[in-house]
Every structure is written in structure tokens, then in C-alpha cells.
């Protein structure tokens, strides 16, 4: 049964801090060359049950997105695609599904970053704990290996069921890319950044053709827990990036 959507306030100055954080994440993702032109999408929930969310507008480059550009959408709104400023259909399919099916996923960041996508093309796309960054994700990712085309609603809902376990913070989307979730923009962005770094390390280690030295499960789990409990790293990371943007006179927060 479809739940009736709660009317949304049209004011694009609502949730200014969350908007600024997400806009900064877009800007830095572009700067890190982890964007996909005018494709790929980030979203953040803004109501208690997670169904109302902010997301980037259709066909706008990450490097230009400002806080006031972000769309306010409702995952239960059947008329979302009839709006004058309707979101990209695949963005609506994928992020609408996440915010309907996974209320614990307050933030959802989807990219086709190079090394994570290379990982997703392997017959075994798992990420073994060969270093500290890789160990961060030990037992904390899911794999969807049933790619069936663009992530319109049916495909998206199937893929997003892989994130129903709150312990899984990254979905490796086979033959596609990754979806990273988190509690806050800072949390999800930090995780996305380090997953790409971990994937790069693993892919380049494979290039050597030499035997890999994989950490034991106990050490990998210990490392992952220590990073999870490390105080304030994600917030400090995003705050520093915002400070750099502010120093440069960026309009991201406008």
C-alpha cells in the first residue's frame, strides 16, 4: 500500500547546515575526480522516518551545486517525477528506494569512482583486508551481483535490499559502482573517500601479480572497530574541507 506523502515546504533555505554539508561533499567529490559528469547522486534524509530527503537537481555538475540548489523530495510521493524540477529518473529510483526501504540510511552517496568501479567489475568484487584502509570495511559491505540495467525503481529496490542490514555501510554494485550510506553527510563522505582509497590500494596491489599478505579476521575486525570508535574523524575531515572552500570564497553554502 502506498503511504500518502506529507506536503513539503518549498523553502530552499530549510535545513541550511545539512544543505551546506551536502553541497561541500559534491564540490569535493568533483575535485577528487570521483564524479561522473552530470550523473550520480547524493541524498540526505531530513525528517524523522527518513522518507523526506534532499538530493541534487537533474543534470547539474557536482562542481557547481550550491546548498539552495538541492531538491526536497518525499520517497512516498507518487508525483515526484511530475514536478517542474523533477529529479533524474534513476536518481529517484535509487535514492527513493533507499529512503523508503532503509530508514537507517540517513545519507546515501552513489558514485562510479574509478577504483571502486574496477573492484565492482571483478568476478569476486570483495575487498580483502590487506591494509588498514581495507580493514576498515571488513564485514561492513554488501555485494549486489545481479546488475540488470539502469537503476529505475524495480532494479533499485532489488539492489537496495542488500543494505537492509544496518551493519553494511557500503554496497558494491556489481558492474556498476558503489552506494555508501551513513548517519550524517560527514560520516558517509568520509566512508566513501576511504573506500575509494582502499579499492585503489587493492587494485594496485593486484597489478603487482605477487601474493597478497591478508590480515587475519581478528586483526581486521579489531582495526575496523578501532576506526569506528576513533573520535570525531569524519566531522573533522568535512569541516576542514569546508574551511578550504570558505577560504577560497566558494559559493557552495549559498
What does this structure look like?
This protein has 254 residues and is an alpha+beta fold. The protein contains eight helices and seven strands; from the N terminus they run αβββαβααβαββααα. It has helices at 16-31, 89-101, 114-121, 132-135, 153-160, 185-207, 217-228, 233-247, and strands at 41-45, 52-55, 71-74, 107-111, 141-144, 170-173, 177-182. It has a seven-stranded mixed beta sheet, with helices on both faces. A hairpin with a 6-residue loop joins β1 (41-45) and β2. The longest helix is centred in the C-terminal third of the chain and has 23 residues, at 185-207. The protein is globular. The protein starts with 15 loop residues before the first helix and ends in a 7-residue tail after the last helix.
Gist of the model:
This protein has 254 residues and is of the alpha+beta class. It contains eight helices and seven strands; from the N terminus they run αβββαβααβαββααα.
Essential attributes:
254 residues, alpha+beta, 7 strands, single chain, 39% helix, seven-stranded mixed β-sheet
Amino acid at each position: 500500500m502506498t503511504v500518502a506523502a506529507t506536503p513539503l515546504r518549498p523553502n530552499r533555505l530549510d535545513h541550511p547546515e545539512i544543505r551546506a554539508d551536502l553541497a561541500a561533499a559534491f564540490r569535493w567529490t568533483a575535485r577528487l575526480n570521483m564524479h561522473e559528469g552530470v550523473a550520480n547522486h547524493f541524498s540526505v534524509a531530513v525528517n524523522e522516518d527518513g522518507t523526506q530527503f534532499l538530493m541534487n537537481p537533474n543534470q547539474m555538475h557536482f562542481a557547481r551545486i550550491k546548498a539552495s540548489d538541492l531538491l526536497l523530495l518525499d520517497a512516498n510521493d507518487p508525483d515526484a517525477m511530475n514536478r517542474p524540477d523533477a529529479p533524474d529518473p534513476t536518481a529517484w529510483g535509487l535514492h527513493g528506494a533507499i529512503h523508503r526501504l532503509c530508514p537507517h540510511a540517513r545519507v546515501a552517496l552513489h558514485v562510479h569512482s574509478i577504483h571502486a568501479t574496477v573492484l565492482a567489475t571483478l568476478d569476486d568484487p570483495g575487498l580483502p583486508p590487506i591494509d588498514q584502509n581495507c580493514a576498515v570495511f571488513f564485514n561492513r559491505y554488501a555485494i549486489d551481483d545481479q546488475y540488470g540495467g539502469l537503476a529505475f525503481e524495480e532494479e533499485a529496490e532489488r539492489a537496495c535490499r542488500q543494505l537492509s542490514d544496518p551493519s553494511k555501510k557500503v554496497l558494491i554494485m556489481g558492474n556498476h559502482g558503489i552506494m555508501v550510506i551513513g548517519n550524517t553527510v560527514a560520516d558517509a563522505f568520509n566512508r566513501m573517500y576511504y573506500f575509494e582509497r582502499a579499492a585503489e590500494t587493492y587494485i594496485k596491489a593486484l597489478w603487482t601479480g605477487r601474493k597478497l599478505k591478508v590480515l587475519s579476521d581478528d586483526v581486521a575486525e579489531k582495526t575496523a572497530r578501532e576506526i569506528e570508535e576513533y573520535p570525531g574523524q569524519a566531522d573533522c575531515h568535512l569541516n576542514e574541507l569546508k574551511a578550504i572552500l570558505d577560504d577560497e570564497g566558494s559559493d557552495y553554502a549559498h
